[in-house]
Input
Amino acid sequence: MLNIIGKMLPLLVAIISTPKIIDYYGDSNFGLLALYWGVLGYFGICDFGVGKATNKIFSEAIQTGEQRTQKVIFNSMIVVLIIISFVVIGVCYIIIYCAVNADLKVGEISIRMINDQLNILVLIVPIIVLSNGIIAILEAKSKFGYTNLIIAPSNAIVFVAPLISLHWPDQLFGALLIIVSVKIIALVILYTIAKGTLVKEMNGPFVKLDCIKNILRIGKWVSVSNVVSPLMYFLDRYIIGVFISPIAVAYYTAPFTIISRILIIPLGFARVVFPFFARYSVTNQNKSIDAVKKLYQTNFGILLVFALIVLVFGENILSVWLNEEYAIQGTIPFKILSVGVLFNGLAYIPFNYLQANGKAKKTAIMHLIELPTYVILLFHMVSLYGIDGAAFTWSFRSFIDSILMHMMCLITIRSDAKITDHG
Output
């Protein structure tokens, strides 16, 4: 519940601030800002599975009473994440160089200004990567109160910063600088809390090569899903931006922003139960199976209510929340995406059950198969039907992904149940 409450603050801030941001920035600048928000979200998975792998290893260490290994796990994770951050930053700067020299449809926006904005945006990579790793450790220790107390305001600033920087010469650059500054403060606080809560149990060497290898071994398949799945989640916006315009991105992203925030509910459940699944995967599998069944029913009921509200009142919501133009342009994508979000949210619990039980390879292979099919279909549908086609493709992919995830989870549960019975 703390996780869900903690994620409600950014949602409420986004609902209140988005209409004001659109009024002040205009559709084109808001479309570019929406793309930056997507990049920030995607940076969250640039730990390449290390955070989730560490959560699993740490949770298992807690369950089996291996207290002396916790310092090694924590420090090994930090070392790996720092190295990964430098690699990602290098790749990002190469991409920026290519992007600003490409023929992008950015309207009145200066390419030089975009280059400056992207350069400051990249600086947030190590901050987000290290923060997510430390959060994984704290969540393994069930310190959800600490993480939400720090992360909720830190995430909310993403939607407040554009309003604070209104009087800057480069408003978007100012907004990104504010976001980076707040994220740095949050990282320092998280690290201090982690050291304070774990230091009494941390004895032994600083790092171990075997521990790093174990993190990378578990994280390699997790990383595939962590990269490919969010890529499919955000790709539609960038295809729209390249092949249509930033204004079209604005009409698409505004309704997507509000409906996708409903995913804080299954995400909140998933972040809590992942360490639970990981702990009991080594001691009591039946507890994990019972939790999957109960959470699925609760998750489905909540998501269905929100989907029905959008399907019935979608146009009215956009008209009141934003304006008539957004209601005209965005109602169809809004309704289609509400169905997609329903299926996307239903996949969270089985996805996390599979990864916590060492089945990350299965989810990774499934996502690798989905990606090329999704990309081809997305290009085709956007070229034919614009943002409506993008919404349909995203939702259809979410439906297929959810079905496959549930099938794999059911097979795994039956297999685990047989092993438990024989044991």
